[in-house]
């Protein structure tokens, strides 16, 4: 090959070197072996029908449970009993016995009002006397 180069003119030699360099680049750009650290990339497969149905079921059940829990927590009406009559009777007895003065009696009724207004809007408030069982009772 060196003999051929000597006989060729300078421009032919440059073009030949360029073509040899491009051949070397082609050989380098396409590796013959893949390194062991990089496994051969497999073509991606579409998920199977069972996997797709399973994913749809899981997502559907999760969304349904979240919707039901949110509705129950923030929107569903619930019954709350407040024993106002018993509380007022207790405060009256304490006042008549001299355990409470006028200012303390007023503070206790303000506390009762604060407890009642702090109950969320999705709770129905009824008198504690009307409840037989299974209702949340709020004590002032």
Strand content: 5-15%
- Helix and strand content put the structural class at mainly alpha
Task: List SSEs in N-to-C order.
Answer: HHHEHHEE
Q: Summarize the biggest pleated sheet.
A: 3 strands, parallel
Strand order of the largest sheet: 2-1-3
Low-confidence stretches: none
Instruction: Give the overall silhouette.
Output: rod-shaped
Number of helices: 5
Radius of gyration, taken over Cα atoms and rounded to an integer in Å? 43 Å
- Mean pLDDT across residues: 80
Organism: Pelobacter propionicus (strain DSM 2379 / NBRC 103807 / OttBd1)
Region (Disordered): 1-47
Biased composition (Basic and acidic residues): 33-44
Biased composition (Low complexity): 8-19
Structure in words:
This protein has five helices and three strands. By secondary structure, it is mainly α. Among the domains are: 49-76; 79-139, no CATH class. A three-stranded parallel sheet has the order 2-1-3, with no helix packed on it. Helix 4 (84-96) runs antiparallel to helix 5. The longest helix is centred in the middle third of the chain and has 26 residues, at 49-74. It starts with a helix and ends with a strand. The mean pLDDT is 80. Residues 8-19 have a biased composition (Low complexity).
